Batch of 4 targets.
Target 1
Amino acid sequence: MKNVTDSCVFLVHWPSAGSFGFNTDILATNLINLSVVFGVLIFFGKGVLSDLLDNRKQRILNTIRNSEELRGKAIEQLEKARARLKKVEMEADQFRINGYSEIEREKMNLINSTYKTLEQLENYKNETINFEQQKAINEVRQQVFQQALQGALGTLNSCLNNELHLRTINANIGMFGAMNEITD
């Protein structure tokens, strides 16, 4: 009760209520003005502010939802890419292994082919050498035989008469013919 009476007493001490003027007390007027402005803003702007905040909240939620969906899609694509990468790496390893084994196989084939070619060349060389040796031996035999024959004929010509000489020539020609048949 005392508060009510104090309030009334306070009103009595107010300057004349009939006059209207400016209150120059900045602190008192600003607080009143601010409280009135805030009151009006809260009363009228409450709906607008609430709508703005709700719209902002919905946009943020939609953005989060879209981000989550994009994140999920990105994770799926990443997993697919990892699976493809693993598959490609396995195929590359397989190609590498096959390539190395193919290279080794070709290398061994080339080495074997080279050895065979070298063996054939060695055989051809040996055959050629043997052929040339036989040819040289035959030529030497023929030359020795002809020289021996000429020497024998020279000796016979000086020692024999015509009749004996003709018989010896015929016998030697027969022997010579037989020798040619044997060597051929």
Target 2
Amino acid sequence: MKSITDSFVSVGHWPSIGSFEFNTDILATNPINLSVVLGVLIFFGKGVLKDLLDKRKQRILSTIRNSEELRRGAIEQLEKARARLRKVEVEADDYRTNGYSEIEREKVNLINATCDSLKQLENFKNETLFFEQRRAINQVRQQVFQQALQRALGTLKNCLNSELHFRTISANIGILGSVEERTD
């Protein structure tokens, strides 16, 4: 490993062969090397660089054209949107003015419908009260009739003995027999 590094270190100590020798002074050789490299790059890279710049220019121009087209399209859409907005605002004003009159009309209709419903409910209430009164009166009548009937039966049972019972049955049979003779 030492021999490889020694050969690089000793480059500056090579004996000169004829008129050719290596100049190891970096400050003196660096501008010359750079000018040679730049000259070669400019000579051979000029076409490549021109092509790259032309392509870049074309891309920039097409991007600008596309941007202009997009801008025009956006302006057209903006104008259409503004026209639609104006139309919608006019319609909204119409709806607002018509809506207020419609609301008033609906309010009057609702009040009238509510009054009609209240009248119907009042009629149903009165009919229900009348029906309930009739039912209560009928129940009271039935209860009074049942109580009267029970009292009458109780009185008859107390008053009737077997002989009176026999005479009542015989009289009823006689009445039924005379009714039967008339129908024949």
Target 3
Amino acid sequence: MFLQDSGSPLMEQLSFFHDHALLILVIITVLVGQLMFSLFFNKFSHRYLLEGQTIEVIWTVLPAVTLIFIALPSLRLIYILDEINNPVISVKSIGHQWYWSYEYSDFKNIEFDSYMIPINDMKPFNFRLLDVDNRMVIPFESQIRLLVTSTDVIHSWTIPALGVKIDATPGRLNQVSFSTNRSGLFFGQCSEICGANHSFMPIVMESISPKYFIKWISKMIEV
């Protein structure tokens, strides 16, 4: 009922499918509940009732049709999530125990590590256990290709507001494509239990305008 505001077209489609499936579940729950309520409290009986082929056909066909109404949008969404469009920027994210590192190979191979800010070093505007010292920065309304891997154990790069969840597996390079439709900060966390400090390797992605992104890249190259 309380999904985050979507920050990407992918998450919008996921929210629509969630509402679609939830509506079907509510209809089924109300129908079955009403039938059970009437069965408990009515006094109807039929001494010679042996079969009812009509009702048996109905309660076999209706669930099958209902499953089709859920399966078709679900399959469409799976293919949309796997679609790799022409990316403007490729960013590589590497999972470590217990921090993330990022590489912008399109821009003279900019590299930096992203650690959670300790509670003792937090500023008033930082979010406890969610903020990092170096954020991943991308331009909004641009197609981004994220390459994800790991150096030790399985991690999972996850940002719920974008509808993105991809495993970081040692020795394997996974990729996902996404874009953001607005500027802002998007928070996430590792979604695979990866060790003692699994809860302390947050992900923060900053979506900014392309003009400011170029300035940020220029500054990072100078450093």
Target 4
Amino acid sequence: MKVFSTNVSVIFRFSSEEVSAQNQVKASVQRKIRQSIAEEYPGLEPVLEDLLPKKSPLIVAKCPNHLNLVLVNNVPLFFNIRDGPYMPTLRLLHQWLTSPGGVLDDEVEAETPVAIMAEGKQHALAIGFTKMSAKDIRTINKGIGVDNMHYLNDGLWKMERLE
């Protein structure tokens, strides 16, 4: 098993008390968020209506370090930093998106969101962005391969609901 160092971000060392604002978004903003998520994760299309129902209010919570949380029924489902791509929370990933036997797909390019799995485990332990392509990770075999954005037991993991 190859081991890579990671640059663990400190953005998720926060608690729900540090949320500066929660706003129900307009229908046009909700459509834009849904479209962005659908484009980033085309495999979610069959369950997107279950995850982000059109009739349920969509809340965006503003957090420290330019972090935005997308909530449905007070449950954080996706997050982004500044205007970056939306990434699923680990709880969402565990509920809907993981499968045993994860592999490093050679087609993965740098700056791609990925789930980070422990060998032999079914559920992801972190979500991050690749810092280099999968091919470079395999051939260079040193340096930062993935920049962790969200991991088990961080502030977002501990925030099951935002009241």
